[in-house]
Amino acid sequence: MADVAKEAGVSHQTVSRVLNDHPNVRAGTRARVEAAITRLGYRRNLVARALVTQRSRTLGVVSFDTTLYGPASMVYGIEQAARTAGYFVSIVSLKSIDADSVRDALDYLAEQSVDGVVVVAPQRSAASALESLPAGVPAVVVEGAHGADVSAVCIDQVEGARLATRHLLDLGHETVWHVTGPADWLETEGRIEGWRSALEEAGRPVPEPLPGDWSPRAGYAAGKVLAGMDGVTAVFAANDQMALGVLRALSEAGVPVPGRISVVGFDDIPESEFFSPPLTTVRQDFDVVGRHCIEVLLRQIDAGPAAYERLVVPPSLVVRSSTAPGR
After folding, report:
1. What is the residue range of 220's domain?
2. Angle between helix 157-170 and helix 186-201 axes, rounded to 10 deg
3. Which end of the chain is less enclosed by CB atoms within 10 A, N or C?
4. Does pTM top 0.85 for this prediction?
5. Are the C-beta atoms of residues 142 and 72 closer than 8 Å to each other?
6. What one-character-per-residue DSSP string does 79-146 give?
7. Residue 63 is inside which H or E element, if any?
């Protein structure tokens, strides 16, 4: 820093202000300092900075099964929002979320002196694991914290399923069949609740849901069952990958979509608009989730967890050509 100050003809305090984007620096002075930084190839010593400020400018993220679209997209949204806020991210991806694995992950992140932690906890079994969050550490949970004393950001899964189901009912379908996600997932519970409540509010019969596990193979198996049933005209799959499997099974059985059966998914994965036919689905805004997570976490870092926050992000329905009026 002293070399930069000498090169630019300013004090080292001025160099510090430029590096920290302080507003009280004249434009000409800032340009001179930035030019000196470029010429000298100066890079800040983040370790030394952390020793002085007692902040590492690093946030920890604990996630589960980042091979799935939802968790992976949430982690990506969080990482992008953190980078925009000037923070690095250290990610720990777990094969399963339980108290022991979360505790180990938090210990690992504590060794890196992270300033705060985001836990992506989509399963009901994660509730006990959240008790492992150490007191006094700024923390936010994504899609979890039901009843836990920790701030949370989530997408309204119930409303998303209601949007999908009401869309099909509004098209004139008598009822809507549902292919669920795996048990113990909060998203599965929320989507079943929204689907069921929409049918009950409309006074329509509630068919027995078909179990799934988020995979196209599970959707394919459910689709083969549905193709052989009479009276099925509308299907809501709990994610787009299972909807893809449903579409494949219906196509192989010679059942036209949406001519005979309309299909709706959930997630709006990038490929869904290129399915055959393009898939009507529920979009989750993971960028907004990530931004809210970082905003809540930074408020805790700056002011302490004085009050727990719970932010709910609304989903939206994306209508494409896999749905049509019932017949």
Report:
1. 157-284
2. 40
3. C
4. no
5. no
6. HHHHHHTT-EEEEEEESS--HHHHHHHHHHHHHTT-SEEEEE--BTTHHHHGGGSPTTS-EEEES--T
7. strand 58-64
Domain presence at residue 220? yes
Same domain, residue pair 162 and 152: no
C-alpha span between 208 and 205 (Å, rounded): 10
Asked whether residue 146 falls in the same domain as residue 176, the answer is: no
Q: Based on the domain organization, do 131 and 97 belong to the same domain? A: yes
215: burial class by Cβ within 10 Å (0-12, 13-18, 19+)? middle
Query: Which residue in 251, 275, 253, 255 sits closest to 264, CA to CA?
Result: 275
Query: CA 320 to CA 243: how far, in whole Å?
Result: 13
User: Which two tokens mark 173?
Assistant: 């379908």
Name 141's bridge partners.
119, 152
Closest CA to 150 of 136, 134, 159, 139: 139
Does the residue 327 lie in any domain? no
Provide the 10 A C-beta neighbour count for residue 217.
14
Q: Cα dist. 110→51, 82, 318, 323 in Å?
A: 15, 18, 41, 49
Reading the chain (327 residues) residue by residue, the pLDDT tens digits are 788 888 888 887 888 788 777 777 888 888 888 888 888 877 665 444 544 444 568 998 888 766 778 778 888 888 888 888 889 988 888 877 677 787 788 788 878 888 888 888 777 766 666 666 666 778 888 876 555 578 889 999 999 999 999 999 999 999 999 999 999 888 999 999 999 999 999 999 999 999 999 999 999 999 999 999 999 999 999 999 999 999 999 999 999 999 999 999 999 999 999 999 999 999 999 889 888 988 888 888 887 656 678 889 999 999 999 999 987
Instruction: Please report how many Cα atoms fall inside a 13 Å half-sphere around the Cα of residue 256, on the Cβ side.
Output: 7
CA-closest candidate to residue 162, choices 195, 187, 193, 189: 195
Q: Is 70 exposed, middle or buried (CB count within 10 Å of its CB: 0-12, 13-18, 19+)?
A: buried
CA nearest neighbour of 150 among 181, 119, 111, 174: 119
Q: Report how far apart, in Å, the C-alpha atoms of 209 and of each of 139, 176, 212 are.
A: 36, 10, 9
